Structure formats: C-alpha cells, structure tokens
Amino acid sequence: MEPWALDPEVVHLNHGAFGACPKPVMATQQAWRDLMESNPARFMSDILPGALDAARDELAVFVGADPAGTVFIPNATTGLGAVLGSLALGEGDRVVATDHMYNACRAQLDVIGLRTGCTVEVVEIPLPVISSDDVVDRVLDRVDGATRLVVIDQVTSPTALVFPVDRIVAALEPEVPVLVDGAHSPGMVELELSALGASFFAGNCHKWLCAPKGAGFLYVGEAWRDRVRPHVISHGWNTPWPKAYRYHALFDWTGTADYSAWLSVPSALATIGNQRPGGWDEVMEVNRSLALEARAILSATLHQEPLAPDEMIGSMAALPLPPAADPTPAVSDPLLVRLRDEYRIEVSINAWPAWPSRLLRVSAQLYNDPQQYLVLGHALEELLGLEVGQARN
To answer: What is the 3-state secondary structure (H, E, C) of 275-341?
Structure first.
C-alpha cells in the first residue's frame, strides 16, 4: 500500500471520488503548515507569494499551460462557478452541456439559468457510445448563433468516459468559448492546455495527481483573463498590482486560508511520478491498462457489454447495474452501503441517467490489482442475487 496511508483492510476501488494523498505529500503539507504557524505574519506577507508562484509554475509545466493564465482554486467545481459568474449571460443566451455532466456542476448551470434567464441546453448522449464521433456530432449539432458557452467534461464523472474535447474545442473556438471540466484529467490523461485552445479549463489536483484535498486550478485563455474573477473579491481588486499579475492577485488571496494544499502540489507531482521508471507517462498507462482489465472482469460478472470503445477509457470504468429493487430514490444506494459495510469495498454507484437506473464505477490506481476486482465481482453476484430475490418476494 506504500506510499499511501489507506486502510489495508478495505478494498479501495473509488480513487476517482476523492483521490488518496500519499504519506510523503502529507508530510510536505504539514511542513508548510508548521512553517506558516511559526510566524504567520511573515509567512503570509513574505513567503507565500513566491511559494505560490513556484508551485504554480511546476503545475503549469505539467499540464502544458501558460503560468500567467493559471490560478489555484479549491476544486474544479469552484472554477466552473467563477467562470459562470463572470460571464454576462442573459435572456436569449444559451449554454450547452451534456447529460454526462457532474451533478454539482449541472446544478450551477441550473442556478445561473434561473438568475440570468439564459437557457441551459442539455445534450443527451445515450449509452452505449459506439464512437467518439457520436459525442462530437451531438454536441456540435446543438450549438447555434445564440450559444455563449459550451461546457464539456473531458472525463465524465458518472459514466467514466474520456470525451474528445480537443475536436469539440477545435470546431468551436474562438467563436464559441468552451469550458472544459477537467476534474479528473490531470494525472489521468496527457494535457497540453495551451495547445488545446479552450477558453477555460478547470481541474482537480486531489484526484489523480494525489495532492491534498483543496487543491485545484483554473486555466483561462489570454482573451478572458481580465474578465474572470473569483466569487470572493479581496485586495486584488483595488490594490495597484501590475496588470500582468492582477489575475493572479484576484485568486491567490481571497482572505486568510490554509494554502498548504496548493503548495504541496509539486510534492505530489514528484511522489507519484517517481513510482514508476517511466514517470507519469508510465503511471497513466499502467492505470489505464488496469481499468480496462477491471472492466473486462466486471463485464463478465455482470454479463454486460462495454459502454464505449477502449479509446474512451482512462483510469476509470463504468458498467450498468440492474435497476434498483426499490423504486424510491435513496441518498446512498443500498447496494453501495452493503458493499461498504459488509464487504469493506469502496466503489461508486450513481443513479444514471435517473433512478432506479444506475451505474457502477470503479477506479484503477497504482495501489490496485486485478484480484480486487474479482473480489468485487463475487460480492456483486451475492448481493445482486439477494436484490432480485427480495424484489420477487
């Protein structure tokens, strides 16, 4: 289980939900906290600005981004909110997204629609997906002259698919700005954000980069940097920073906070990258290969065909489960609760596209092995058999 601090008595197959921070990275985070608390005033005024710049520069290199357009944020959902709150949307405007969108982000679109009067157009992409061409065609078909923003997941959360965002961005930018929800992207797929050309990209560092919780980033193209601002406005708004640094100033300091998660991102990049001789390229390939193997194991158990071609799989895989026996929606799927409580297995089960339909999602990280998915398969056989019997009774 090295270098992770995970409970060895639990089968951890849900890395994609909240990640897992390695012990060396946690030690780095604590060192930053100790330094801060040794002299908070000096740390915040003299040490923090330069340390943030150094951490930002390393992250920007890793994701292929211009550091000038990169800011740290707590998570990708916060980045989406900052962009939506900064756009002058109104009645007659349209925002296009897909039904594979993360629920918290979909909720933000619903709220922005209520607040501004803009229309949120949700593109249905049914499963199984035969080809990534279908995703491109369906999204582009719903874009028209009133579309002010397209929001597209690079790696979908509920369905665990890698969408062809490069082709969608190439077809729309710069006429129609694209916001890429890259919550799962850093550390799962190779990124070159400057070359991608999307106006906005929001990513998490706590998932596949294995940084501490509370570390994410927002990348904004040069044309938009003087218009995007955080939810909380602080000193960066009216302090006479040089124009080139105002975008950083707005996001870097929105009030006193624990910045140790952001400052620990370089440690996460080094720690995980050093787990394999081939560095991050090998890490991502190992995880993807294991995810494909996991999908094959569980497809056989559940007697299900794959939901998408191999090219659309990253470090996670999703498979359909039989509909829930109880048609009443539940906050936590009873099957998930029993897997956790009785079998000590952590997975993700999502109601998709709507309850009682549901998807099982498993993750593949360096601490996983094929045997664990066989264990999950056996547990599912037992529990799903019980569900069927209870439904018949």
So the answer is: CCCCHHHHHHHHHHHHHHHHHHHHHHHHCCCCCCCHHHCCCEEEEEECCCCCCCCCCCCHHHHHHHH
Residue listed under structure tokens 């006193």: 256
Buried b (16+ CB within 10 A) or exposed e, 114-148: eebebbbbbbebebebeebeebbeebbebbeeebb
User: Identity (one letter) of the amino acid at 383?
Assistant: L
Q: What angle do CA 299, 208, 123 make, to 5 degrees?
A: 65
Q: What is the maximum alpha-carbon separation in the chain?
A: 72
Q: Is the pLDDT of residue 385 over 90?
A: no
Select the more confidently predicted residue: 390 or 178: 178
- Mark residue 37 as left, alpha or beta (left: phi above 0; alpha: psi -120 to 50; beta: remaining): alpha
* Residue partners of 110: CB distance under 8 A and separation at least 6: 120
Q: How far is residue 216's CA from residue 261's CA, in Å, rounded to a whole number?
A: 9
Instruction: Determine what percent of the chain falls in helix, strand and coil, rounding each to the nearest 5.
Output: 45, 15, 40
* Contact call for residues 58 and 203 (beta carbons, < 8 A): no
Residue indicated by tokens 């539940």: 330
Q: Is the pLDDT of residue 34 over 80?
A: yes
What length is written for the chain? Answer: 393
- 171-212 pLDDT, tens digit per residue, is 999 999 999 999 999 999 999 999 999 999 999 999 999 999
How far apart are the C-alpha atoms of 340 and 347, rounded to whole Å?
Answer: 8
**How many whole angstroms separate alpha carbon 4 and alpha carbon 11?**
13
pLDDT given at position 242: 67
For 132, the 3-state DSSP assignment is: helix
Phi, psi of 71 (to 5 degrees): -135, 150
Which percentage of the chain shows pLDDT scores above 70? Answer: 97
Which stretches of the chain are assigned E, i.e. beta strand? 11-12, 70-73, 94-98, 119-123, 147-153, 178-182, 200-204, 216-220, 316-321, 345-346, 348-351, 358-363
75: three-class secondary structure by DSSP: coil
Peptide bond into 334 cis (omega under 30): no
The secondary structure of residue 126, as a DSSP letter, is P
Say which residues have a Cβ less than 8 Å from residue 42's Cβ, sequence separation at least 6.
none
The vertex-77 CA angle with 334 and 206, nearest 5°, equals 80
